[in-house]
Amino acid sequence: MKARELAVEGAFAFTPEVFHDDRGMFLSPHQEEAFTQALGRPLFPVAQCSYSVSRRGVVRGVHYTATPPGMAKYAYCTRGAALDVVVDTRVGSPTFGTWDSVVLDTRECQAVLLPTGVGHLFVALEDDTAVSYLLSTAYAAEREHALSPLDPALGLPIPDDITPVLSERDRAAPTLAEAERAGLLPRYADCRALDLSGARP
């Protein structure tokens, strides 16, 4: 499995070796040795596995979790294709406000590791796109926050041929600057400490 560090500090894209034959294909999207080599530590303890299915044009995000307790994610696509975007929402981070993107599909079978406190968005590029997530903490609606995926200051790379299909929550979400002024964003030092310790409150 190959690892590539993204423009957002602490975020990585992982590409596994895919074995094809006349029966189909086989791959291992979760490989602890690859995480340890790239991060200097194992992947976070997995508290929950979640799964979404979206039609073309659906935009989910930008979502992040209040820290503490925070949430790290590992996302990969099991059907269809998605443009996955990582947004640094951690106040004090050396890459605060920066984003990077990776195409997740069933051809290259890339996966994205999102450290604690960063925002996550994806755009479904095909109908019935399925994305699976490993989460470091259990989902709790009261701890989840959203930023506008259409924030002009962020300029996220939603493809021009996509008409975004947004939830009401995402449509009404604040911009990054508005969330920062309101004190809604996680602090980099808190997020980094959780990632390095592997501990969860």
TrEMBL record:
<dbReference type="GO" id="GO:0019305">
    <property type="term" value="P:dTDP-rhamnose biosynthetic process"/>
</dbReference>
<dbReference type="Pfam" id="PF00908">
    <property type="entry name" value="dTDP_sugar_isom"/>
</dbReference>
<dbReference type="InterPro" id="IPR000888">
    <property type="entry name" value="RmlC-like"/>
</dbReference>
<keyword id="KW-0413">Isomerase</keyword>
<dbReference type="InterPro" id="IPR011051">
    <property type="entry name" value="RmlC_Cupin_sf"/>
</dbReference>
<comment type="similarity">
    <text>Belongs to the dTDP-4-dehydrorhamnose 3,5-epimerase family.</text>
</comment>
<dbReference type="GO" id="GO:0008830">
    <property type="term" value="F:dTDP-4-dehydrorhamnose 3,5-epimerase activity"/>
</dbReference>
<protein>
    <submittedName>
        <fullName>dTDP-4-keto-6-deoxy-D-glucose epimerase</fullName>
    </submittedName>
</protein>
<feature type="active site" description="Proton donor">
    <location>
        <position position="133"/>
    </location>
</feature>
<dbReference type="InterPro" id="IPR014710">
    <property type="entry name" value="RmlC-like_jellyroll"/>
</dbReference>
<dbReference type="GO" id="GO:0000271">
    <property type="term" value="P:polysaccharide biosynthetic process"/>
</dbReference>
<feature type="active site" description="Proton acceptor">
    <location>
        <position position="63"/>
    </location>
</feature>
<dbReference type="GO" id="GO:0005829">
    <property type="term" value="C:cytosol"/>
</dbReference>
<feature type="site" description="Participates in a stacking interaction with the thymidine ring of dTDP-4-oxo-6-deoxyglucose">
    <location>
        <position position="139"/>
    </location>
</feature>
